[in-house]
Amino acid sequence: MIKLLLDEGHEVIVVANSEVIYDKEITDTGAEFYEMPFYRHGVNVLKDTAVLYKIYKLIRQQKPVLVHAFNPKPIFIVGIVSYLVKIKLFCVSVTGLGALGSNSLYSKAIEIVYKLALRNADVVFVENTHDLNFLIHNKIVVAEKCRVQIASGVNVHEYENIRKETSNQSIIFSFASRLVWNKGIKELFEVAKMMKTQHGDRVRFLIAGDLEIDHPNGVQEDYIQQAVDSGYIEYVGRLSAKDIPQFLKNCDVVVLPSYREGFSKFLMEGAAAGKALITTEVPGCMEIVREGVNGLLVKPGNIDSLFNACNHFMYRNDLIAKYGHASQRIAIDEFDFKITAPRSIEQYEKAGLSLL
Fold first, then answer.
1. Contact residues for 173 (Cβ-Cβ < 8 A; gap 6+)
2. Global pTM?
3. Which of 169, 172, 304, 314 is the most exposed place for a label (fewest CB within 10 A)?
């Protein structure tokens, strides 16, 4: 999206937490980069207020014709700023509902914040129809503002020629995501242990992801270490998006037993890499995996269901290649950047902003 806008002669400013591997990639496009220390793990009044003031000053100084906020904290902060300064076109991408939907006080509080933050939004992108219906039904946002649109696709070109032929010697299952419990970590580790007990060296589980130590839902480091020491998972640490193609090259089946997603990036990456997929029958996952076509769907939070799916591939190697070919075709047709980015910009124009 940044490159498309720059190619048309527009100025683009990216405001985000600093990430060394991406900062230079952003500035190399010709976009300006403003480091902004968003606090991601809940509320920190001092840090959040400081960032809010910086965002307020930046918008007042730059007077952008469009502000597009991705992820909860930027949405909340820009949403508050929109009451203080006029934003010509304010768009948000709700990339998953997180804690929304439970009966907890925390969930109710987040719902109120979303209502306030989205009130001044001109366009609200959601990634699946379940999230769309939830937001409308709970009167968090009016239907007229909403569009179903993937926030980010995948660069299919980066995954060309990396498909690995399955070996009868071992089958490698891979998982890459933030290491929080609602990604299905407990079920995945239990299944890895069962599979290792049953199949020994014929099976491997590769786990990649950030240790979310400060996150209230984060998996403890010693839990990971114990699984590594027991020999049923291999933890490769944190990977950047640039590392994922090579990571997937060495695997056979992508597994994501998440309880809920907006629209899973890792499953899209697995599809682009031409892998068979296993995921849960929940919003944000089941839109990517078509049962019996490019993978298998399992019940969320169900160890037996996940075990049966993983075990199935141990006896049907032929399905790994078959599903992998279907995955890659779906990624090319539906998830490629060349498709997803122009669609988002089209929505800007439909909202009244002439760009391309």
1. 192, 195, 203, 204, 205, 206, 251, 252, 253, 254, 255, 278, 310
2. 0.90
3. 169
